[in-house]
Every structure is written in structure tokens, then in C-alpha cells.
Design a protein that fits this description.
Layout lengths: L2 E5 L5 E5 L4 E2 L6 H21 L3 E7 L5 H13 L2 E7 L6 H6 L2 H4 L5 H10 L6 E2 L4 E6 L12 E6 L13 H10 E9 L4 H9 L3 E6 L6 E6 L1
Helix pairs in contact: 1-2, 2-5
Length: about 220
Amino acid sequence: MKRHIITTGDGSKTIQIDEWHEQYHSIHGAIQEANHVFLKSGFDAVISELKLDAISILEIGFGTGLNAIMTLLKSEKDAVHVDYVGVEAYPVSVSEMKQLNYTELLEGELTNKHFNTIHNVPWEEKTSITNFFQLTKQNKKFQEITNSNQFHLIYFDAFGARVQPELWTEAIFKKMYHALKVNGVLVTYSAKGSVRRALQSVGFKVERLPGPPGKREMLRATK
């Protein structure tokens, strides 16, 4: 499918799939969305609630690496050790990655170096990017996930249910439930009623939270 780079509302870029008219991030702001949904509502909330100095994270939809680089920067700032697993069935190309401007907009002298490293490390191998951030990229479909009781937090950042409804089903969320530790949390930008009900049906306690710019609500689910 044809893809091209677009600029979102906060000046950060993302990838659009023309056939679906679907983007990797919110058109209202890629960085704003990642910060609100995954960092503030996910990372900060779980660290605070569980009083952690080390956290294991599963990202469903590694995509452009935006959530990963922002989590890396957060881990350095807060001195929290992160074991990060990013699952992606269709990795972005080198040419696409080079057109993204996240490192120009995010703070930190080494951000560009770390962003390039995140994209260049081998798949299927755990790699220490910094003293606080370890990354394992897994090239596989979400349906192939078999982890059990491993993660404190899941960033559920799949393409929307409008274009890939099969990724927002009870079957997928059952896998997410099993992958989480007790009291673990899943956060997602979606607030669809069907998504909320699917999460609840597999055992999650689900909250509606204020959404990022351009969205009224988002969901946070706790095991």
C-alpha cells in the first residue's frame, strides 16, 4: 500500500497509508498524542501507582519508534530502568525513518543518536541502548504473541479498529491480559465502545480518561 510522510498538528511528522486514509499517529499531533496517551497516562501512572524503579513495557505497533524514543528519554530523566519490547509486523523503511523529525523537536543532545540506534539494532536481540533502556524489537504479527505474566505496561498502538478490526478483538486482548503482570496496565488512544467491551470481557477493569488533543477520551485497562 502507498505510504507517505505528512506533518501533524504539533509540527511532528507521521506516516499516512493512503488506501486506508490512516496515520501512524494522530493528525492533531504525533508527539502530543504519544506524550499524553503512553507517557503520562501509562508510564507515569504505573511508575507512581506501583512505586517502580524498573518497568517492563510491551509496545503493540512499534511503527516509527516514536513511543520508544520518548520512553527512552523519560527513563533517562527519571532514572527508571526500562525493558522495552516492540512488536511490529511491517517495519518502516530507512528512507521513511530519515524523513521523521522527532529528534529535532524532542529535547536531549543524544536524541538523534539514540533514535538511529533504535532503528538500526538487530531484530529479535535484546540491546542496551543506554544504561536505563533495553530494547528488543520483534518482527511478528500481534496474533503470535505468547508472553505470560511478563509486563507492567502495554502501549496498545495498533492501527484503528476502522481499518484493522481484527486487532481489537477479545482474542487479541486475551493475549494482552496474559502478557501483563497482576496490576499491570494497558493504555490505548482508542475510546470505542466495542474496544472497551472487548477489554472488559477478558477481565480488565477499564477507565475512560480524557484524550489527547483532537480526541475526547482514551482508555486505560488494568489487570
